[in-house]
Specification:
Blueprint lengths: L8 H17 L34 H12 L8 H16 L5 H4 L16 E5 L4 H6 L6 H12 L8 E4 L13 H18 L3 E5 H9 L5 H4 L3 E4 L2 E6 L14 H15 L9
Parallel strand pairs: 1-2, 1-3, 3-5
Antiparallel strand pairs: 4-5
Bound molecules: iron/sulfur cluster.
Length: about 280
């Protein structure tokens, strides 16, 4: 007898009564009570499925971080030629970097850095702008032209100094780099500086100074004194873009004061000409 879920209790009772009548008619005089019935064997609990080890998905950032720091020898142990080769390899690695998704989709190319090994001075800016993104070289736009004039006013040539940025990709609309982007790009900056080995650093603007030195102090508080990055003296000053005619050209005077301090500390003569 099968239960019919569509039958009412009264209908089921009538069906059961009819079934019992037919059993009596066929000679059945008793039925076992419920307690005599052996419960159906319980199914063996099925064994839990074996644990599946998911592959550890490394982000491109993690992969590259591992590659760089796991295999990179100390730059001190390298010959200048080895440093030159590794710098070129680092630039190639940077050119393929996809750590910052929003920058990768909008960049034309990465902007690594430019200049000689073992320079007296390295300028560190914020990030490439439109011209830098188009040409693949840092500080080639209007701010770059002003930086060239600052370098010349210091009695130096652009080719003598190394120039790079906190980021190697242009943020869309030249927005300020996010902390995550700066963090993603930091090991490229650090390894670049290890390989290039500048004797002095000049951080241009708040973003460069704060990220390089790991501080939130304003550029107004950081500028004009010597700070330290891994044993390299750092002078912070305003970013050349801040000195352009549409921004705060009156700050050129303070930048020149900073540059004079830097020249004296570097043991270079201080030219009389300003800017
Ligand atoms: S900014 Fe630096 S870390 Fe970010 S994608 Fe460009 S090269 Fe990679």
């Amino acid at each position: 007898m099968k239960n019919d879920p569509n039958k009412t209790p009264e209908e089921l009772a009538r069906v059961l009564e009819g079934h019992l009548d037919s059993l009596r008619a066929s000679g059945v005089s008793w039925l076992p009570q419920q307690t005599d019935l052996q419960p159906p064997p319980r199914p063996e609990p099925s064994a839990p499925p074996p644990a599946v080890s998911l592959p550890v998905v490394q982000t491109p950032a993690a992969q590259q971080a591992g590659l760089l720091f796991d295999t990179a020898p100390p730059a001190d142990a390298l010959t200048p030629e080895q440093r030159r080769v590794e710098l070129a390899e680092l630039a190639q690695r940077v050119a393929q970097c996809v750590r910052c998704r929003s920058l990768v989709v909008s960049r034309t190319q990465t902007v690594f850095g430019v200049g000689p090994l073992d320079p007296l001075l390295c300028f560190v800016g914020e990030a490439p702008g439109a011209e830098e993104d188009a040409l693949g070289e840092p500080f080639v736009g209007a701010a770059g032209q002003l930086l060239n004039r600052i370098i010349a006013a210091c009695g130096m040539k652009r080719e003598e100094v190394f120039i790079c940025n906190i980021l190697r990709c242009r943020p869309p609309g030249n927005r300020t780099p996010t902390p995550e982007e700066a963090s993603n790009c930091r090991e490229y900056l650090e390894r670049t500086l290890e390989l290039v080995r500048p004797r002095f650093l000049c951080a241009l603007g708040a973003c460069a100074a704060q990220n390089l030195l790991g501080t939130t102090l304003s550029i107004g508080k950081l500028r004009g004194r010597f700070l330290d990055f891994k044993g390299i003296p750092v002078l912070c000053t305003y970013h050349p873009a801040y000195l352009l005619p549409t921004r705060s050209p009156e700050k050129k005077k303070e930048v020149w004061e900073d540059m004079k301090r830097l020249l004296i500390r570097m043991g270079r003569p201080v030219p009389q000409a300003k800017q």
